[in-house]
Amino acid sequence: MKILVINCGSSSLKYQLFDMKDESVMAKGIVERIKLDGSFLKHEPAGGDKVEIKAEITDHQIALKMVLEALTHPEYGVIKDLSEISAVGHRVVHAGEKFSGSVKITEEVMDALKECIDLAPLHNPPNIMGIEATKELMPDVPMVGVFDTAFHQTMPEYAFLYGLPYELYKKYGIRRYGFHGTSHKYVSLRAAAILNRPIQELKIVTCHLGNGSSIAAVKGGKSIDTSMGFTPLEGLVMGTRCGDIDPAIVFFIMEKEKMTAAEINNFLNKKCGVLGISNVSSDFRDIEEAAARGNYRAQLALDIFAYNVKKYIGAYAAAMGGIDAVVFTAGIGENSSSMRKKICDGLEFLGIKIDPEKNNTRGREIDVSSETAKVRVLVIPTNEELMIARETMALVK
After folding, report:
1. 209 carries a ligand binding annotation
2. pLDDT band at residue 114, thresholds of 50, 70 and 90?
3. Which runs of consecutive H residues, i.e. helices, occur in the chain?
4. What is the DSSP string of 75-141?
5. 81 is catalytic
6. Is residue 233 within a helix (H) or strand (E), and if so which, with residue range?
7. Cross-strand partners of 17
8. pLDDT digits 0-9 by tens, 309-323
9. Which among 142, 149, 302, 311 has most CB atoms closer than 10 A?
10. 283 is in an annotated binding site
C-alpha cells in the first residue's frame, strides 16, 4: 500500500509518499511561495537527484497537480500511475473537541473542520484547501484527517479547563487543546518500543523542543496534560512566542505601547520568546553561538528556556505520580546536547541523570541515560509524517 501524506500551509505544501510495505519514503518535497512571486517545487525521489521546478503557482490545486505530476514523471517520478496511491493522509491542526482520533474525511468531517476555523484561523483554512484540492484531483482515493489536537483529547477536565466561568467553555470552547499531538504520540510509542515495555504501564514526559515547543505528560499511552493551551502561544518560552505570562501584562503593554488587539497578538506570537530576550535570533543555534562568545542576553535566553522545560518535567512527574522516561525530540531536542544537559542537570532527585559521552550526539535515536539512572532519557527523532501514514493505513484498511 502506498500512502501520500500532505501538510498544507497558507503558502506551502509539504508531501511524502510512503510504501507501507516497509514504511520507506519513496519521495518527498515541498511547494513554496504559493500565490506569491518566485513560487517553486522541490522534489526529492529516494535514491535520485533533487529536482527544482519554478512555475507560477496561484493556488493549492495547481501546487498539488505539480506534486502529482512529479511523482509520476518518467525521469524523476517514483510511480507509474496515480492509481498506485491507495490513500491520502492530511495533517490538520485543529479539530476542537469533535474528534479524539484520526477520521476518514467525509462531508460531515469537512463541515466540522470549517466550524473549527475560529480556533485555528491561521492553520485550518490552508489545511482545508489542501483537502479540497486533493478531492478535486483524486476524487476516488480515500482520505484521512490526522489532527494535531486529537492526541490530547484524553486530558481530564480538571487539566484542560481554565479558571474562567464554565459557561465560556460551553459557549466558545475555551479550554486547553494542546498541539504537536502527532509528534508526542509517535515518540511515546517509540519510547515504549525502545524500553521494551507495554506503553500502558509507562509514565513518559515527551519534550517536543523546536522553534515552537511543547511538553506532554503521557500516562499509559494517553496524554493527561500538555503545555500548549487554547492556542500554541501558551506554555514554554519559544522561538518568538512568549509562553506563560500574567494575562494583565497584555493590557499593560497595550496601554503603554498604544497597541491594538491585532498588534499585541502579533507581538506576543512573533516578537517575543528567545528572540525578544536575546535580541539575537529565534534560532537556538544562533543564540548558542552568541552565548559562547559571551553574549549575556543570549545566555539568559538559553537559561530561561532550560528552566521552563525543567519546571514542566517536574510538574508532569508530579501529575502522573512518577516518571519512567523523558523523551527529547524536534530540532532542539534532537540536536542540542548542551540544552539536554542544561535541562536535566538538577533533576537527579527524580532519578534523571545523563551520560555526557552518550549525550554527545545529534539527530539519532539513543538512550543517553547514565547506567545508574532510574529514569531513562531518550533522544528520538520525531516522524509526524510516518505517524500520519500509519493512522491513514489503519483507517482505510
Report:
1. yes
2. confident
3. 60-71, 107-115, 124-137, 157-160, 166-172, 181-195, 247-257, 261-270, 273-278, 284-292, 296-320, 330-335, 337-344, 356-359, 384-396
4. TT-S-S-GGGEEEEEEEES--TTT-SS-EE--HHHHHHHHHTTTT-TTTHHHHHHHHHHHHHH-TTS
5. no
6. none
7. 4, 27
8. 999 999 999 999 999
9. 149
10. yes
**Annotated binding residue 210:** yes
Check 19, 49, 148, 246 and give the catalytic one: 148
**Residues linked to residue 349 through DSSP beta bridges, in sequence order:** none
d(CA 206, CA 185): 9
Residue type, 7: N
Assigned C-alpha cell, 200: 500502558
Residue 199 annotated as binding site = no
Q: Encode pLDDT of 127-167 as tens digits.
A: 888 888 888 888 899 999 998 898 999 999 999 999 999 99
Task: Please tell me the predicted confidence (pLDDT) of residue 97.
Answer: 81
Three-state secondary structure readout of 15-58:
EEEEECCCCEEEEEEEEECCCCCCCEEEEEECCCCCEEEECCCC
At 70, the amino acid letter reads A
Q: Compute the distance between CA of residue 48 and CA of residue 75 in angstroms, rounded to an integer.
A: 10
Map residue 259 onto helix, strand or coil: coil
What the block records as the C-alpha cell of 49 is 537527484
Residue 266 labelled as part of a binding site = no
Grid coordinates given for 244: 506563560
What is the Cα–Cα distance from 1 to 393, expressed in whole angstroms? 8
